[in-house]
Amino acid sequence: MSDIIFFLLAGMGLGSLYAMLGAGLVIVYRGSGVINFAQGAFAMYGVFTFDEARRNGYLRLPWFDFLPTYSLNVPVDIKLGDEGVSSPVAFVLAVAMAVMIGLMAHFLVFRPLRSAAPLGKVIGSLGVMLYLQGVAQNNFGGTGRQPEAITPDGVFDNFLGLGKAYPQGTFSAIVFAIVMGLVLWGVFQFTRFGLATRAASSNEKGAVLLGYSPQLLAALNWVIASVLATVAAIVLGPTGGSLTPVGLSALVVASLGAALIGRLQSILITVAGGLSIGAVQSLLVFWSSDDWFPNFLRSGARDVVPFVVIGVVLFLRGKKLPLRGTVEEKRLPLAPYPVRIKQHMVIWSAVVIVAAILFEGAGARSVFSLALVTSMIASILMLSMVVITGYVGQISLAQLSFAGVSAFVMARMMADGSTTISNPFPVSGPGLPWPIAALIGVITAIVVGIIVGLPAVRIRGVQLAVVTVAFAISLQSLYFENQSLTQLSAGAPASVKPASIFGIDLKSIGDKGLKDRPEFVIFVLVVLLGCIALVANLRRNGTGRRFLAVRANERAAAAAGINVSRQKLLAFGIAAGIAGVGGVMLGFNQGDVSSAGFVYQASLAYLAFAYLGGITSINGAVVGGLLAPAGFITVLSGYFLRDANIQDYTTIIGGMGMVVTAIQNPNGIAPTLQPLFQHLGRWLRTARGAEWGAAIKRLGPVFVLGVVIGYLIWPLRVDTYSKFWMPLYGGFLALFIRGIYKQARAGGHAPVPHGNTPTPVSAGAAPTPVEVG
Amino acid sequence: MSSRGMRARPALALLCGLALFAAACGGDDDESTSTEAPAATEAPAATEAPEATEAPEATEAPEGTEAPEATEAPAEGDSGISDETGGIGAEKFAADLTAAGESPLKAEGDPIVIGFQNPEGDPNGSFPEFSLAAEATVEYINNELGGLGADIANGVPGRPIELVVCKMAISPDDSQRCANELLAEEPALVFSSINFFGNHFPTYAAAEVPVIVITPITVGDFTSPGVYAIGGGGGCLGVHTGLIEFATTEFGDIERLGIPWANTPPGVVCYYDLEKKPVDVLNGSVPGDSARAGSMPNLTSIGVPVAPATPDVTPLVTEVFDFDPQVVVFSGQGADCWNLVDGMGRLGWTPDQVPLVLSGSCLDFDAMRAAGDLAKGIYIVGAPGAVLNPIDSIEDPRDKFEATIYQTKLIEYGLDETELNKGFATQGATGLLSLWEYAAKIVADGGEVTGAALGEAYASSAGDHLFGSTPLSCSTAPAPYVAVCNSEVSATQWDGEKLVPVRDRFSGLDLVAGTELKPGPDA
Predict the structure, then answer these.
(1) Which residues does chain A have within 8 Å of residue B181's beta carbon, measured at their own beta carbons?
(2) Domain definitions of chain A by residue range
């Protein structure tokens, strides 16, 4: 018994960090209605600022210089001295940084998103998280930091008579968390500011009528949350050992569990919840080494705790969790009615097939074959997001987990006890042919999808997103990385045998090692087209209309006789099935599947790119696929900008792109580009000499000016940007700036209102698109 | 606008499951001044010291770079570097580099494309020091060592290296993208610095491009044909058995061994097969062919899994200490090692109370210095890291020479000092210099420097010199670990500023001889 008590107490050290991050989540939620996935990233940037100032005497600012030159540069750091500064000075700097980050988050991101759809806010906070991670990576490096503790480093021998040594630092952390919790509780309970915040949280309109500014309150709450995260990480972080940009950011999942225990309302209960989660995790780790502990739970017992907490709390109390009464909340963008799908399929299929043939054995350009395949598979995965999020409005961050289930099951069904190069340990299995194995994989994904969708019957929006994240993490630990279930020893991947049909070998890798086989590209294309046809038909038929009705208003849909729960589960099943098809294709492409390919952060990335592309349309999924990691745009950028070190900025730019899209253009890129392309196409068809001359006269000087500036800047640059591409980049940048200038002069930029845009057209120009949702 | 950034904490976890690589960089503490070839190994003609091996006064800097401080290379005759202790070719290597220091030889002709696949720019795992060190080493090779296939002694230049670096995110897709992109450049050979997926090997295998793995961590790194894992200790195969060998011989007849282990997929098999099983062989509960089998009947151990990037390890450390271990061993990724040390320290532990033996993968001089007294006295098995030691503190002639080369030449050719001090940077340099050595051998034997020839040269290595590491022996790799080229380890002790040699080259492989594979608890 004493062991149990001791390990419960030992886990509260980490629990105190969950508690403080959870308290920050509650404060932000009450202040602005945002579940801030970037709360851990706030803590990370703050504690890194503290450590960097104290250790090296630098203040690293939270932005970056995309065009570093020898002379003209954006200041990204301030040198405070040759040696590190004192702890109090570093602490003040870190707090100041936290204030700045909190204000920037509010004014640059969440204030503009105040009336966005829940998904827009999720994307915004994920964008902030990515941005901070990327900037921290560039400013502080990606390796772990071991900040010096400012809490006592002694030990209580025989703590509470339990017979074991207990770190004083852990004890201090718990005390700090409890005291801070009480202070915050007092502030929000007894001060006018706290009262106003609670009022705005309950009813924003009412708060406005009482003379409070919800946005000012929100800004103050963002600052408090940011400062709290930083101070907590400085005081409590060292108990967590080595800190990394991603590791600290990831603590937000357990912290969400704590915040949900506190119903996103009570700071004190959240603190207690955080401490409890840490304690239970510690106890499970202790128990997991005992003989009686189930083998299949050993590897992931600790990670499962937040999931269980989140799932249980949301399932039992989901409908009682407070929703913020905002002045206005926009819906998701419209889901356009797909038209002329067949024509587009034929045209683009021809383009892809010709490209696949041209790229085979084309030297350096052969890399585009794999890029096409990667993009098409990503598009399949994003189509599943179009169904579940774009059509039904359910935010699922577990789509890649469904793909993983499908891929792992398929691989196991193919296994026959033989070994491979990448896995010398035999995996038993029935050795089924690929079509049956793939089918079983997809069916399994559908079943799992429906099970995961069960909480959606009671909850929706951001809360569902939290559940799906927790599910994805649990699946990772309990299945993908669980040797007792997968028989995959030593991290070996699950081998996937290549497909073949009518004697045609559909393996992805060619005889020369390059992944440029046209047969495989066409295979993936056919599967993608099948998924597009499925989703297009879904959108057109009654099921799609019911989905959109549920998305628009669940109560109204129910009143109209639609079984909302059934529609949600159906959507989860269909979306999981499509994701499962994507997982199967991932397996065929890679030749094997490993757990690292299906982590929840990958789902976040895919969701982000689907959103960038346009999450409510088929075109959006295709464009999102082109943008996906290792996809066509990435490879194209690498091909043309080889020495630009662009990968150092991709995370940052990706994060910024998500934020900008969420604010300015929630429809995504695809629906925006479409009219432009149509206009360009019409102009090219009709333009004659005079029009060309006028265009050149109008744009030529600007382009040339940009080229010249690019050429002049090139020698100043400290990196190895291409001498050819830099001027070209300057030329196009100049045209872009001109466009913005013209737009501003023409009456200012009017942001596209959420959900009120002219209906974009999916997969073709619809003459009279139907507006639904 | 494509972000490859967002990847997993579990991916990070897998990443951090680096538990296994051996950061090699070997050194010998043999103080023999003999330069004779070992009796059992006939010294190749090419290993004779060239004429021009006098210590140069200063190293000529390439254009546009600031002249470095003079590189003090040992003079001929008193170098004290021998093939016997440094591996076959150590003498020639030292002689060539010394000669090149005096008369730098520029590479000429068409470049030979060498690929380099490295995780960089991803917040989930970024190790730019690998490629930065490799690039600096390539500059050194091209500007002073005559390129690939050079005959320094006779002043005949070889061909320059064109290093094509593919920076990848921590993702299976990107791993294959890089392999595809590098293959499209038609490289003679590819270096894979560290890869958590192993799905790039089939691509190279189909093209018959040899792959040199600098830091082996996945099963594929150990078992793939056409792959040569040169990292010191050969990953967990050499390092984990070496840890047990060292812990059970260095500290007397111990009875309780604490083994916190990296709870990653590779870490599971490394613990059960190469730590727990050797302990069971020693106490006689598992039969084996080891000469030491059953010699420690009272030996017991406790294994406590430590997940990578575990936020608070004190509960885990408490469990280890409850066992009252006489020695604790751990192998993990650098940050996890110092996380564990920090957790132990917060429970009042000091190295003089209970010896702690870490793997070479834990080497991070900055972290070790920052840990202060807590790190002083910790043992390191696997990677002596001698090239990182302060030059003045090194006594062994070979270590001193190679540390001097590493610490002056790489800085001279653009490597930042912060990166220089990282274990991965030394491995990047080791990889490229090994390539240079083998290319020279191929040409000296009348061959042509091609990918196939280079692959064959690595494959046939047997006790060959490897810069800053224990010797390379790909030809003796035991099945199924056919790619493991370097399973010997050394033991050193951190004295607060440098690593002090404790035990020269040894191996713990004997502890698992004649046993059945045990990849997990149920196996």
Answers:
(1) 364, 367, 635, 638
(2) 2-320, 341-666, 674-745
Please report which confidence band the pLDDT of residue A721 belongs to, taking 50, 70 and 90 as the band edges.
Answer: low
- Spatial neighbors of B110 by CB under 8 A, at least 6 apart, are B159
Window 286-305 of A, Cβ < 8 Å to B: 286, 288-289, 295, 298-299, 302
How many angstroms separate the CA atoms of A377 and A380, rounded?
Answer: 5
Query: Please, which residues 603-632 of chain A have a Cβ atom closer than 8 Å to chain B?
Result: 604-605, 608-609, 612, 627-631
SS3 A749: coil
Residue B75 has pLDDT above 90, yes or no: no
In degrees rounded to 5, what are phi and psi of residue B358?
-110, 160
CA-CA distances (angstroms) from residue A332 to A115, A120, A384, A615, A756?
11, 8, 16, 9, 9
Q: Give yes or no for B268 touching A (CB within 8 A).
A: yes
Give the residue, A524 or B174, on which the prediction is more confident: A524
Show the tokens assigned to A191.
């001060």
Round to whole Å and give the CA distance between B487 and A363: 38
pLDDT of residue B1: 35
SS3 A41: helix
Measure the CA angle with vertex A658, ends A654 and A659; round to 5°: 120
Q: Tell which residue, B366, B375, B354, B369, has the closest CA to residue B416.
A: B366
What is the interface size between A and B, counted as CB pairs within 8 Å?
349
Which residues lie across from B125 on neighbouring strands? Answer: B122
Q: What is the DSSP letter of B306?
A: E
User: Which chain B positions have a beta carbon within 8 Å of A374's beta carbon?
Assistant: 173, 177
**Structure confidence by residue, pLDDT tens digits, A327-340:** 455 677 788 888 88
Convert the pLDDT of each residue in A162-199 to its tens digit: 778 888 888 999 999 999 999 999 999 999 998 888 88
**Tokens standing for residue A517:** 């086989």
- Structure tokens, B155: 């002043």
- Domains A2-320 and A341-666 agree in fold: yes
CATH C-level class of A2-320: mainly alpha
Query: In CATH, what is the architecture of A341-666?
Result: Orthogonal Bundle (1.10)
CA B145 to chain A, closest CA, distance in angstroms equals: 25
Is the model's pLDDT at B377 over the cut of 90?
yes
Return d(Cα A622, Cα A611) in angstroms, integer: 11
Q: Share the mean pLDDT of chain A.
A: 84
**What is the tens place of the pLDDT at every residue in B335-370?**
788 889 988 988 889 999 999 999 887 887 778 888
Where do the domains of chain B lie, and which CATH numbers do they carry? 236-385+508-512 (3.40.50.2300)
DSSP-based helix, strand, coil % in chain B, nearest 5? 40, 15, 45
Of residues B437, B426, B436, B435, the one with CA closest to residue B387: B426
Residues of B with Cβ-Cβ distance to A422 under 8 angstroms: 198-199, 201-202, 219-220, 224
* AA letter at B177: R
Chain A residue numbers touching B5 (CB-CB < 8 A): 130, 133-134, 605, 650-651, 654-655
